[in-house]
Amino acid sequence: MRRCEYKTFCVFEGALEFVVDNYLFAATVGPILCGPMGIPHSFKDAGTVSSSMITLVTPAGFEKFFEEVEEPVADPSSPLPPPEPEDTGRL
């Protein structure tokens, strides 16, 4: 959980499960969900097909997070490995 941004999520395809402050929300196309600043939140794909969504983050600056944690993917068609404990600490 990042503590300094508000996040707004909108699902365009598929289905996602969001957890916001220990409350579970199922989202399909259309609903807008909020990840408030300082409140734990997460999401995962919950359907049988791939999902897509847009995430709006305010205030600006969240792109620096991705610059810090990015690592090139050797094979885009292979699944990502689970994060290592040292990676989780970096997040």
Furnish the topology, listing elements before pairings.
Layout: E1 6-13, E2 16-20, E3 23-27, E4 32-35, E5 41-45, E6 52-58, H1 63-69, H2 85-90
Antiparallel strand pairs: 1-4, 1-6, 2-3, 2-5
Provide a descriptive summary of the structure in words.
This protein has 91 residues and is mainly β. It has a single domain (1-66), classed as Jelly Rolls. It is built from 2 helices and 6 strands. The chain has helices at residues 63-69, 85-90, and strands at 6-13, 16-20, 23-27, 32-35, 41-45, 52-58. The strands form 2 sheets. A 3-stranded antiparallel sheet has the order 4-1-6, with no helix packed on it. A 3-stranded antiparallel sheet has the order 3-2-5, with no helix packed on it. A hairpin with a 2-residue loop joins β2 and β3 (23-27). It is globular. 8% of the residues are buried.
What's this, in brief?
With 91 residues, the chain is mainly beta. It has two helices and six strands. The protein has a three-stranded antiparallel sheet with strand order 4-1-6, with no helix packed on it. Strands 3-2-5 form a three-stranded antiparallel sheet, with no helix packed on it.
Structural class: mainly beta
Please give the domain count.
Answer: 1
Report the order of strands and helices. Answer: EEEEEEHH
Ends: how far apart?
A: 8 Å
CATH class: Mainly Beta
Number of strands: 6
| Computed CA radius of gyration, to the nearest angstrom | 14 Å
Tertiary shape: globular
**Relevant CATH superfamily:** Jelly Rolls
- Strand order, largest beta sheet: 4-1-6
Low-confidence stretches: none
Query: Strand portion, in percent?
Result: 35-45%
Overall average residue pLDDT: 83
Architecture (CATH level 2) name: Sandwich
Q: Sheet with the most strands? A: 3 strands, antiparallel
Helix run count: 2
Overall helicity: 10-25%
CATH topology: Jelly Rolls
